[in-house]
Amino acid sequence: MSLPSPSSSSSSSPSSPSSTEPFRLTFTTPSLRNTVLADASDTFYYDISTPEWAPCDTNIRRLPVPGSARESQSRFEQVARVRLHHGRAVGLAMYGWEWGDVNKFVWEARPQAQAETEKGPGGEESGWEFEDDDWNVFRWEVVGQRLELRRVRKDSGRSSANEPPVATFHRHKRFMMVGTVSQPATLDVDPAALGSLDSIVVALLIVESFRRH
């Protein structure tokens, strides 16, 4: 399901991002399994929860986006459910559809050399690819301490480090590495890619489960 851009719903909205400035969303807690992800004006607002009585089932919901057919409703919409095994994503159900193998939504990317990225066993880049609802292919790549999302060119099956990332995920930071959180985790998204935000968020949570478990 493609989401409308917030700029299309109200040209005078102070929350509408410029055409060049990344759209920032912030995670409210260090845990990506129990958190809220939202921008400063709550134009995009995701509730991510893994209840104690169902620790293997992460539920991802979103409030209706301004400009959508359900804007007048205040109820959360189901985006996805992620099934976990020892903390690692193994199953996925998008928009209430049937459960499927998570690796059919996010799969390990074919290696490509890139000096600044984290290297795999063969000295190659670590990355994970997925498709949005419009069959656009994206790749999450590890770059230093962050994750960068890039479009995959259909002609070559490769992403380009020379192009700005579609999105960037920064993990939270703590005082002295072990103290209280000094900087929350953030997700910066190119405004042109906001229509794919559901897929981007779900893929990010799955990739982080792969990396941490």
TrEMBL record:
Residue span of region Disordered: 1-24
Domain DUF6593: 31-212
Family annotation (InterPro entries): DUF6593
Listed Low complexity bias regions: 1-19
Name this protein carries in UniProt: DUF6593 domain-containing protein
